[in-house]
Amino acid sequence: MTKMGEGQGTSSTGSAPPGQLSRQRLLHLYRVMATIRRFEEVACQLLVDGKIPATLHASIGQEAVAAGVCEALEPADLIVTNHRGHGHCIAKGVDLKAMMAELMGKASGTNRGRGGSMHIADPAQGILGANGIVGGGIPIAVGAAYACRARESGQIVVCFFGDGAANEGGCHEAMNLASLWELPILFVCENNQYAEMTPQRVHTRVKDLSVRAGAYDMPGASVDGNDVVAVYAAVEAAVRRARAGGGPMLIECKTFRVRGHFEGDPQRYKTAEEVARWKEKDPLTLLKTSLTGPGGIPAGELEAIQQEIESAVREAVAFAEAAPLPSPDEVLTHVYAGA
Amino acid sequence: MSVMTYREALNMALREEMQRDPRVFLIGEEIGVYDGAYKVTQGLLKEFGERRVVDTPICESGFTGLAVGAAMVGLRPVVEMMTFNFAILALDQIVNSAAKMYYMSGGQYNVPMVIRGPGGPAHQLAAQHSQSMEVYFYHVPGLKVVRPSTPPDAKGLLKSAIRDDNPVIFIEAETLYGIKGEVPDDPEFTIPLGKAEIRREGTDVTVFAYMGMLYRALEAAEELAKAGVSCEVVDPRTLRPMDIETMIGSVRKTHRAVVVEAGAGFAGMGSEIAAFVTENAFDDLDAPVERVTGANAPMPYAKNLEQAKTPSKEKIIAAIRRVCHA
Ligand SMILES: Cc1ncc(C[n+]2csc(CCOP(=O)(O)OP(=O)(O)O)c2C)c(N)n1
Ligand SMILES: [Mg+2]
Predict the structure, then answer these.
(1) What does DSSP say about strands B114-118 and B144-146: parallel, antiparallel, or unpaired?
(2) Across-strand partners of B116?
C-alpha cells in the first residue's frame, strides 16, 4: 500500500504480511508475470517484423497488476479488460497459442481472426473480452456482476480499466449502479500514469483515483501496483468481501506504462527522470530480488522457469505462424447468432 | 497555390479561421501539447494558447456537450474526435442537442460548431476502430455532413464548415492525411457546402464515390477507359445537404449510375442516392442503379477478411460493366 485515498469510504487494506503467500505461489506469480513480459516483448518484435499489424498496446511494466489480481480469483470468476489487456488475459489463463494466433489474424485465434489484440475474448477462461472503446467495458462488467448475482453463481467480476477511462461518463454511471445494488464486482483502475500522451495530473484533478469510491459510498484503496504481493493482498480482501455479498470496491493500482501508448510511439512526453525512477521499481525485478534474497531460492530455479516460458512463447509463435487464415467466404459469419 | 498534404490543408484552414475569428476555438483529446493524434492541430497551441486549443480528459460526451453550450453562448467550437468511432459516445449531444437546438428553441438558439476528425475504414483496426461513420449522422435533420476527399477540399470545406451557423460533421480519413495536392493560399478561399464535384468526365456511366473509394473508382475508370467504357466520376463532397442538381445532371447525361461506398450497404449512402436518382431521373435511366458497398458485417481484423469486407476495384469494374452491358 503506497497511498491512501482520503474520500469517505476509503479504507486501508494494509500491505500483505510477509509470508502470506507461500513460496510456491510466489513462484507461480513470477511465472505469470514473466510470461506476460516475454509474450509482449515477442509480440512487439513480431509487429516490427510485420507479422502482427499495428496496433499493439503493450502492458510491459504493469504485470504485477494482472498477476496479483487474477491470483485472488477463482477460475470461474469473470474479467472484463481493455485495449491493453494481453496481461490480464494471460493471468486469467488464456492459451498463449490462441492469443498469438489472434494477434496474427488467424482462424485458430481466440476470436477466429475477427477481433485482434483489442478484442481478445475467451469464455472458457472467464474472459468476457477486451474493449477497444475507452471505458466501454465498465458498465458491461457491472452487467456481468448483476447476472452473477441473479444466477446465484457465486462468481465475482473484475473490471480492469485505465486512469484515462476513469473520466468517461459510463464509468461513473456504472460505479453508482454497482454500489447502489451492491453487486459482486471489483473495479481495478490500472493507473499507469498516462492516458495516451497525457499525464494523469493533467487529465484528472484528484491525485488518488480511489478517492472517487467515496462518492459512490463504496470502499476504495490505492496500492503499489508494482508490488504483486500488495496487489494480491488488497484484491484478495476485496474479493472475499464481494463474494460474501459486501458489494463492490474500487482498487487503484499505481504503476507505469514502460513502453509507448502504442508500439512505435516515440514517447517524447516522458521525462528521463520518471523513466529511471520507475525502472527501479520494475515489478519483475522486485519479485525476483525478494525471491532470491537471503534465505530465498537459488537464482537457477528462476532461470529454469524463464527457459520454460521461452519455449512456451516460441511454441505459441510457431503455432500462430502455421495456423490457417480465416476463410474469406466467412466474412458474414458471426454477424447474427442463430443464423 | 502551394502543394501540401491533406493534413496540412486542414491545419491551414484551422489556423486561418482562428486568425480570422476570435470566437473559434478547438477542443479535444491530445490536440494541444501533443499536436493531435494525427497532427492536424500541429503548432496551434503554440500560436493561439490554451484558451483556444483545449486538451481534454477522455470524455467525448462531456466535451461535445460543452461545445454545444459554448456555441449557444457566442463561441464557435471546433471539436476534434480523435477518431470518429468515439463520436458514438457523444451521439446524444450531437443528435439530441446540437442538431435539434435551433428547431426546438423555435429558431432562438443556433449551434455553430464543427465536429471533425478521421473516420472510415483503416488498416486492420477491427470492428470498433474501422467503420464508416457518416451514416450515423446524415440521417439527422439539422446536421450537415462533409466528407472531403482531396487537399483543396479539405481546406475549402473545413473553412466553410467553421463559418456555417449550424453543426457540421466533418469526417476526414486517416488513410488520406498524407496525400498531396495543390491548395490555394488565399485565406478567403472556401468551397461552399452542398456542392458536388465532377472528378472525371465521361459519357457512359456516372460513378458516385468519395474518400478512399473515390480513388478506387478513379482507378476503375482508368482501367475501363482502355476497354472503351467512359466513366464520369462524381464526388458528392457534402453528403447533407447533397448537390442533387449536379448529381442528377450527370446521370441525365450518362443514363447509368453506380454508387460506391466503403460502409455496409444496408440503408447506406447508396440507398439514398439510388432513391433520388430513381425519383428524379427515372426516364433517363438505361439500367437500374447499382450499389457497390462494404459487406453487411462489422469490420473484421484479419487482413484477408478485411479485404473481403471492402469493395475492391474488381467489384467496382464488374458493377460498371453490368450496368453498361460491357
Ligand atoms: C472512447 C474512446 N476515446 C478515445 C480512445 C483512444 N484511446 C485509446 S487508449 C486511450 C488512452 C486510455 O488511457 P487509459 O484509460 O489510462 O489506459 P492506458 O492506455 O493507459 O492503459 C485513448 C484516448 C478510445 N479508444 N476510445
Ligand atoms: Mg493509463
Answers:
(1) unpaired
(2) B80, B170
Split into its structural domains, chain A has a count of 1
Residue A330 lies in a domain: no
pLDDT in tens, B24-78: 999 999 999 999 999 999 999 999 999 999 999 999 999 999 999 999 999 999 9
Strand partners, A10: A220
A197 lines ligand 1 (CB under 6 A): no
**What's the CATH code of the domain at A297?**
3.40.50.970
Give domain B197-324's CATH architecture: 3-Layer(aba) Sandwich (3.40)
Tell me: cis bond preceding A55? Omega within 30 of 0 counts: yes
Name the helix (H) or strand (E) containing A81.
strand A78-82
What number does CATH give the domain B2-183? 3.40.50.970
Would you tell me how many other CB atoms lie within 10 Å of the CB of residue A173?
A: 14
What are the pLDDT digits (tens) for A122-138?
A: 999 999 999 999 999 99
Domain that holds residue A183: 23-323
* Cβ atoms within 10 Å, residue A121: 19
Question: Over the stretch B224-235, which tens digit does the pLDDT of each residue have?
Answer: 999 999 999 999
A233 to chain B, minimum CA–CA distance in Å?
A: 30
449550424: which residue's cell?
B166
Q: Is the CB of B89 under 6 A from ligand 1?
A: yes
Q: What pTM, to 2 d.p., does this model score?
A: 0.95
- Cα A249 to Cα A123, A158, A184, A206: the distances in Å are 24, 10, 9, 18
pLDDT, residue B193, reads 98
Please indicate, yes or no, if residue A336 is contained in any of the structural domains: no
Contact B246/A at CB under 8 A: no
Annotation says B325 is catalytic:
no
- In one-letter notation, the amino acid at residue A224 is D
What distance in angstroms lies between residue A135's CA and the mean position of ligand 1's atoms?
A: 8
- pLDDT 10s digits, B163-196: 999 999 999 999 999 999 999 999 999 999 999 9
The x, y and z cell numbers of residue B64, run together, are: 461535445
Where along chain B do the CATH 3.40.50.920 domains lie?
A: 197-324
